[in-house]
Write a structure and sequence with these properties.
- This protein is of the alpha/beta class and 390 residues long.
- The chain has two domains: 43-250, Rossmann fold (3-Layer(aba) Sandwich); 298-389, NAD(P)-binding Rossmann-like Domain (Rossmann fold).
- Helix content is 31%, strand content 22%.
- Strands 4, 5, 6, 7, 8, 10, 11 and 12 form an eight-stranded mixed sheet that branches.
- α5 links the parallel β5 (112-116) and β6.
- Bound molecules: zinc ion.
Amino acid sequence: MVVRGGQVLRHINLNTPGKWQIPIEYDVVSCDKCGMTFADTPVTDEALGWYYRNCSKYENYAQINGETAGKEDEFFYDVISKYAKKNMRILDMGCATGGKLITLKSHGFKNLTGIEIDTNSVLNLKKYAIEGYAASIFDEPDKDLLEKYDFVYSSMVFEHLLYPNKAVKNLVKYLKPAGTLFLFVPNALGFPIYDREIPNYFNQEHINYFTPNSIDTLMMLNGFERYSPDADANMESPSMELTIFAAYRRVNAIRINSEHHVIRDISGEKAVLKYFSEIKDKEKRELEMVRKAVDESGQIVIWGAGSLMRHILSEEPDIIPHVKYFVDNDSVKQRMEFFGKKVYPINKVKENPEVDIVICIMIAPTTIKEQIDKLGINNKIINLAAEEWR
Ligand SMILES: [Zn+2]
């Protein structure tokens, strides 16, 4: 249903490293026809495929997020087990390293398959004796897998897709006629509830900002209706994100079979605009904290070489000369440079007791606090993201 173009809600600028081949700027828009909010990005599917194959952070997900990842998987299990039964053949499309499949297996599920674009992640499934294939959601299914599954789910994948409609059409090929398609995506209605930093929602990966209505419309146009309750489409996850969990099944009579019959829904546009207006003040406060650190210690070290850092430095490039270097736990990032500055492992900061450290992390801040305590450093810490220890 997504038509490129629409009403512009805000311009996003994220300076991505050149080798990622992903455009650095886009407009967040709402579709003139259905109201669906999405990134009107010039990125191509080839470029995104390349990015997920070569810059996968999901390979390191458990390592970076530790306990949070485990909690998310258990939370997911509690919801999914209301719809998926142990005797079912189950497919996880876009399974990453298989955290959710492994959780299902630990609860006694047996017929499990994972498909993931990142080859290394598929290898991880083998360690747990779970069937796995390296493929994209847009690849034509292997003919042995056609209509094989009672339950096909895709967790935190659809917000990343350039062609969600094409993906649904492909995904349902794996599904038995009476099967359930289960989708699990961030809920844009939650953006103004939590007011987290812009790159948490708008970054080089997130393209679609679904609401329960817009994902229902997408599925309805493909002959599916949601049978799970609204309460499950508006759930708060352990990482404090409003999340849509939605179970769909085929309907015999397709009620809406053309986009001409879709009523434009403004719930997503309203939520996104409210969020953009509220986040402006928060960004101003954060920027003042960074500028104060620069004024006081001349140079700063930024802890976290992720999208929050790229967002801040793209919008405020005069700060860049004051950044001594970045530190990050992610070994993938440690091989990269951003804005001409290197990324080191976190223990590098012990060499520079004189600089202030600006924490630019959007997730798992309590883990970072533990790491700082463990390093035994006395640098002044400016924490941009974690309200609880500001
Ligand atoms: Zn649309």
